[in-house]
Amino acid sequence: MRPIISFDLACTLFWEHGCDPKYPDRSVRYVFEKLYSYLEGLGYHIEESGISWRKYYELWRDTWNRGPMRELWHRYILLKFLYKNGVNIDYEELDKIYRFFIGERAKSFILPRRYRFLLEYLRGMGFNIVLTTGTGAHDLPLEILRINNASKYFTMVFSTQLIGIPKSDHRFYEEVIDVLGVRPDHIIHIGDSLNYDIIPARRAGLKTIYYGWRTQCRASDPQPCVTDLWDILDYLL
After folding, report:
1. Partners of 40 in beta bridges
2. What is the pLDDT of residues 118-177, one digit of tens each?
């Protein structure tokens, strides 16, 4: 029986400009520019400097630091963010604004063609593939998959919003194990973050492959480590 392959989404399988250390805020800044225009179209006039992605994530960090460790949702942070900027929306408008935000954010992510071929190859070889992500909204990975016509490659999407636990917590991966009903060592998790992928997944008992595109697989990095996702085949077949 082949192991289950668990892929991280952002900056592992799916790429956005924010993954590039030279452009960490490019795509997010664009989304907030679009959000400002959208709010203006709804009749809300606010200071443009108020609709800032930096202020949004400052509010996100402040909310995180003041409460117990839990997964925050974009829908809730958007509500706080807008109210603090004088945009007193109702719950129906919040839903429209949230869906606009998710739609624009999802457009930033692309599945490179060579990784699409990798997923097709793995599915053809009979592997069960799941996706894990810490996007703060379960709707976001689903929209990313829809836009990229990639839903067919995955049997399940485990987001931090769906499970309710941050990916940095090993209990996130323990929930994945529990849902899939397999031994921990029957899942191989592949991701590009030590703190959100490799360390907590290993603590939960999963096998891992570190996608070290940032570090170029230093001797001190967890092994096995690859700089090209196609190289995971050396550890799967």
Report:
1. none
2. 999 999 999 999 999 998 899 999 999 999 999 999 999 999 999 999 999 999 999 999
Residue with tokens 């570090």: 215
**Separation CA 173–CA 66 (nearest Å):** 25
- Which contiguous run of DSSP H or E holds residue 82? helix 74-84
The secondary structure of residue 107, as a DSSP letter, is T
| CA dihedral over 217, 106, 7, 237, signed as positive or negative | negative
Residue range 60-83, pLDDT digits in tens = 999 988 877 777 889 999 999 999
Tokens linked to 142 = 């689903």
Amino acid at 39: L
Map out the domains of the chain as residue ranges.
4-16+109-236, 26-106
**What is the value of pTM for the model shown?**
0.93
Q: Which helix (H) or strand (E) holds 95?
A: helix 91-106
User: How far apart, in whole angstroms, are the C-alpha atoms of residue 30 and residue 26?
Assistant: 6
**197 and 187 Cβ atoms separated by less than 8 Å:** no
Q: In whole angstroms, how far apart are CA 14 and each of 110, 119, 211?
A: 5, 12, 13
Q: Specify the fold of 4-16+109-236.
A: Rossmann fold (3.40.50)
